[in-house]
Amino acid sequence: MKALRMIASLTIAGLLLAACATPTPVVQVVTQEVVVTQQVVVTQQVEVEKVVEVTPTPIGGELVLYACLFDPDKLEVLFQTFKAQYGINVTCLDMSSGEALERIRAEKDNPQGDVLFGTTNLSHVNLAADGLTEPYQGVGWNLMPEGAIKDPEGYWTGFYYGVIGFACSPERLAEIGAECPDSWQDLLDPVFVGEVVIASPAASGTSYTTLTGLAQLYGEDGAFEFWQQMDANVAQYTESGSAPGRLAAAGEFAVGIAFAHDIQVQQDSGLPVELRFPTEGTPFEIGGISIIKGAKNLTAAQAWVDYVFSTAFQRYHNDVAHRIPVVPGVALSEGNYGLGDVKLVEGYDPTEWAAKRDELVQRWQEEIGSKRGG
Amino acid sequence: MTGDLLALPRRWSAIRRQRVALVVLIAFELGLLALAGTQLVQVRVVEDRRELVGNVETIYFRNEIVGDPPLLILIVLGTLLPLASRQLRREPVLLVATQAAIVGLITFVFWPLAQVFVEGFRAGQGAEGFSLIQFEKLLETPMVARAARGTLVIGVTSAVLSTVIGTLVAYTLTLTDVPWKRWLRVLTTLPLVSPPFAVSFAVILLFGRRGLITYDLLGITQYNIYGPHGIVFVQLISDIPLAALILAAVFASISRDLEEAAEDLGGHPFYVLRTVTFPLVTPAILTAVLLTFINAIADFGNPMLIGGGYQVLATQAFIQMIELFDLQSGAALAMLLLVPALAAFILQHWIANRRSYITVTGGARTGHIRKLPGWIKWPLFGLCVFLAAFNILLYGSIFVGAAVKAWGFDYTPTLRNTYGLLNSLPMLRNSLIVSVGSGLLGGLIGILLAWLVTRQRFPGRGTLDFSATLMYAIPGTVIGIGYIIAFNAAPYFWTGTFAIIIVAYAFRRLPVGLRTAVAAQKQIDPSLEEASLDLGASRLRTFTQITFPLLSRAFFAGVIYIFIRSMTDLSAAVFLNAGRTQLFTVRMFRVMITSTPSEAAAFAALLIVIILIALSVLSKVTGKSFVDLFRV
Fold first, then answer.
1. Has residue A13 got a pLDDT over 60?
2. Per-residue pLDDT tens for A215-228?
3. Which of A79, B56, B124, B422 has the maximal Cβ count within 10 Å?
4. What does B273-335 look like in DSSP terms, one character per residue?
């Protein structure tokens, strides 16, 4: 009897627990008044010299960076310096830019990352448009001139440039009896039949940069006409933007079209690969940085955004990652190119082309991608 | 008569105790379900709109349901269904085990796959209702039509060729008297220790434009390995061992008596082969075709490395999900992959079940050597030697490549390539955590299910068995996409946790763990368990103290097998790992795509060494030889 009573009480407890824990699945509109006093935003004016020294103030805490596109191990030096100055522990998560965007979207109620660090400004433009980033007019924003390099309201700021280049394999060129191409038109030479490697614009942002650069240069129709002619020489369209550089460096194909910084990484590892830029003009990307809306470590995030514009950061980033600095007066490392060393496509603004992506990729697939055998 | 009368009250009290126990159990389960309910379905207050009047801002909130009410309903049904069986009601332990198995299969097999379909029929992110727009979009994209054709071409060609060659290899190494059989068996099995994309990579090291064979040895500069021929070639190298293993097991068990009887009745050896031997191995051949077909269509690492732009559905799904993160097109593509895989699975089941292939085993002479004329035997032997030599070359090139400065240009020995590896140790740790975790979980579920399906009788047993085996017909790409869709939404952000990867691998390799455990369970005499029950031990106690210890070998075999498969997986890993949980194979694949051959070779070499260590442990545990380990 005693046992029965105990069991009964246990059962009731269980049922009560069940009743409490079950949510009421009713959609209802609850209005709740929350009074928020308006904040006055004080814009800090920072005097800018040729060398940018960001005065560090110890803040402490954590900082989570999304999308370490570049080898996070090599950035470790920067994180350590930053930690020494600000007392902030930096975690940089390695993921593709598409994944970073999707994660930021998915986590918008409960952001896990603080800063979207790197990736082309197209991602930053899209995030700002969706209201997923927070404006910050810090050291870098104030330093950059008006124009393509920054968002007018400070939602994102560009902190490096990347330019498209040709990677040439000297050995392969010797075998087919050709010279490393110097211009877009050189790529049409029949000597390069089956020797040019470029990523598919449908799969890679790098190649979309190339496509839009050509469109700026030759007009949209002209660009497709050019690409159709070049298609005869293309050995393969890779899925990855950096693979063409790797394939040329490995001596598999004569010419690979990729970002110069990806080609230089191959040079660093001792592979014989030559880097050239097209004389008609080369397309470029602007690598941006923005703060994720609702970032848990806002002060640390702002400190990091300021830090990436310091001369020390910009020089190291150029030294190991070969990204072109945006801060004027930063000395380039040996063997690196600056914006002065290449001819950029005139009037090209990567931000403007962002909106046409779907349309141009669709056209590319119809006119070029789908025409290939296999 | 008196004994019965005396026993009656005792039985009554026993029945009452049973009933009370059942009620307590059900109450407890309801509590658990309610707790699960709060996790699966949540009401969240979200911001509706803001209004600014003067300097006072009013924020309006509304309630919103997040989560998956249908999953909760299914889980509740899965828990209640076994209660309908009177036998299960009498056995609380069996009841809980069955409920756990059903709920597990619903949540981690059925639900992710169903989500692939739901998402594939959705118009766009978060859109309601049924729509065919994704398929219209896909059909309008010429790339997809090409990719679908490409997938079928690659899948059918590699499945047929690897099964044919695998059958020949298995026949030669099991039933003929060629020399060096022991070594040939090990060497022809070698590619199973590495993921196919590592084979791709090694093939480029050998046959690329700077390849050791094409360039350094033969001086050929015009050969191009990139293309569909490259994909099929690599798929063959990876899948011939798989087909050979499946067939070898069957060849070894065929009774010689049947063939001899046929020969005694005057049958010509070829006639016997065609009418007796071949029909007996038909189910195994079908299994081999099915598995190699699924492997070939699921793989995107291999086409991306060596395909030279040749389009297959798996690479398209990779681009949509990883590069562009378009969940709906990814799901639609996954469905296109799932359909042929399921069709192949059902076809294989149908053909295999049409006839009975049981041969009398008790005392029959098996594995008898067949005398073959020299003109058949030696070419077969040549084929095996060629495969073995090729595999040595392949894996040799990975290890040499890892130790030189720049493959193809500078063969000076160096340790430089290991630096990149040292930096990737966290990913290696992640892979080890995931693989050990999924091994243990998968092994445990395998044992539990095996015990349920071999020792217990209850309604729905067949369905349980079928759903557990279904997973092996699902391409890894589809599993990855399904899990993302099912578990990435609010309220559970499972992507980026180890748990999701561990669960995915455990259920994905469940058929293997199950098969191993069933085989072992059948070896154990039921009288051992019955004796324990008769002596008054509960079923739970019998399982933990009698059955499980007897099955421990099978358990560890399952664990290590799942460990190896998880360590080398790429097709599901690439979708499931994120940020802090990045896995070693995914890192390795990235390095192969972007970095130098020598650095990538170092990654492959380390992975192979780890797998070989795991294999030798497995070999110690099970007392089986290296080759037999893969025979599952």
1. no
2. 999 999 999 999 99
3. A79
4. IIIIIHHHHHHHHHHHHHHHHHHHHH--HHHHHHSTT---HHHHHHIIIIIS--HHHHHHHHH
Dist CA B95 CA B91 (whole Å):
6
Contact B63 A28 (CB under 8 A): yes
**Rounded average pLDDT over A3-16:** 45
Give the distance from CA B478 to its chain's centroid: 12
Residues 489-518 of B with CB under 8 A from A: 489-490, 493, 496
* CB spacing of B224 vs A243 below 8 angstroms: no
- Judged by a CB distance cut-off of 8 A, whether residue A298 touches chain B is no
A7 touches B at CB < 8 Å: yes
Q: Which domains does chain A have, with CATH numbers?
A: 61-160+285-338 (3.40.190.10), 163-284+354-371 (3.40.190.10)
| B150 interfacial to chain A (CB closer than 8 Å) | yes
Q: Per-residue confidence at A307, pLDDT binned at 50, 70, 90? A: very high
| Domains of chain B, each with CATH number or no CATH | 141-189+224-387 (1.10.3720.10)
Report the Cα B248 to chain-centroid distance in Å. Answer: 20
What three-state secondary structure class fits B496?
A: coil
pLDDT tops 50 at residue A44: no
pLDDT tens digits, B454-491: 777 777 777 777 777 788 778 888 888 888 888 876 55
The CA dihedral of B308, B310, B316, B318, to the nearest 10 degrees, is -30
Average pLDDT of every residue of chain B: 81
Count, residues in chain B: 632
Question: Would you tell me which residues 342-381 of chain B have a C-beta closer than 8 angstroms to some C-beta of chain A?
Answer: none
SS3 B625: coil
Q: State pLDDT tens for residues B394-423.
A: 999 999 988 888 887 788 888 888 877 887
**ipTM metric:** 0.74
The secondary structure of residue B218, as a DSSP letter, is: T
Place of tokens 């190291």: A316
According to the 3-state scheme, what is the secondary structure of chain A? CHHHHHHHHHHHHHHHHHHHHCCCCCCCCCCCCCCECCCCCCCCCCCCCCCCCCCCCCCCEEEEEECCCCCHHHHHHHHHHHHHHHCEEEEEECCCHHHHHHHHHHCCCCCCCCEEEEEEHHHHHHHHHCCCEECCCCHHHHHCCCCCCECCCCCCEEEEEEEEEEEECHHHHHHHCCCCCCCCHHHHCHHHCCCEEEECCCCCHHHHHHHHHHHHHHCHHHHHHHHHHHHCCEEEEECCCCHHHHHHHCCCCCEEEEEHHHHHHHHHCCCCCEEECCCCCECEEEEEEEEECCCCCHHHHHHHHHHCCCHHHHHHHHHHHCCEECCCCCCCCCCCCCHHHCCECCCCCHHHHHHHHHHHHHHHHHHCHHHCCC
Partner B contacted by A236 (CB < 8 A):
yes
Two tokens, residue B237: 């190298």
Over residues A92-118, the pLDDT tens digits come to 877 777 778 877 877 777 788 899 998
Q: Which helix (H) or strand (E) holds B48?
A: strand B41-53
- Residue pair A257/A238 in contact by the 8 Å Cβ criterion: no
Per-residue pLDDT for A304 more than 90?
yes
